[in-house]
Design goal:
By secondary structure, the protein is of the alpha+beta class. It contains two helices and four strands. It has a four-stranded antiparallel β-sheet with strand order 1-2-3-4, with helices on one face. The protein is elongated, with a radius of gyration of 17 Å.
Length: 111
């Protein structure tokens, strides 16, 4: 199922590490799509429930989950920017954001 065809109640991306889970939600506005991220920790109290609270040992893992979500959102925004550029300027490549330019240059610095 393509992202545009998904119902609004389903996250477009999720990642997890043990009981920690991050979900990316896509929302539409008059200015175009925007993304939100939710983080939760699964707890078992008779039944499984989600909690928005994290302990000391969870903090770095939460940071990595958020970093993964950030990468996904950046790729989605780049795809949308490229699709819009193709519609507006056929045959011409336009970078989607300064972040994608930075990541493009970073690959050469690290090589």
């Amino acid at each position: 199922m393509r992202i545009a065809e998904r119902p609004a109640t389903i996250p477009i991306f999720s990642c997890r590490h043990r009981v920690l889970k991050a979900k990316v939600w896509r929302n539409e506005s008059e200015n175009g799509p925007f993304f939100n991220v939710t983080i939760s920790r699964a707890l078992r109290r008779e039944t499984w429930k989600d909690s928005p609270s994290f302990g000391y040992d969870d903090v770095l893992i939460v940071a990595e989950l958020l970093r993964t979500c950030h990468g996904f959102i950046s790729r989605e925004m780049a795809k949308q920017g490229e699709e819009a550029a193709k519609d507006d300027f056929p045959g011409k490549v336009i970078r989607a954001s300064p972040l994608t330019d930075w990541l493009f240059l970073w690959r050469f610095v690290c090589a």
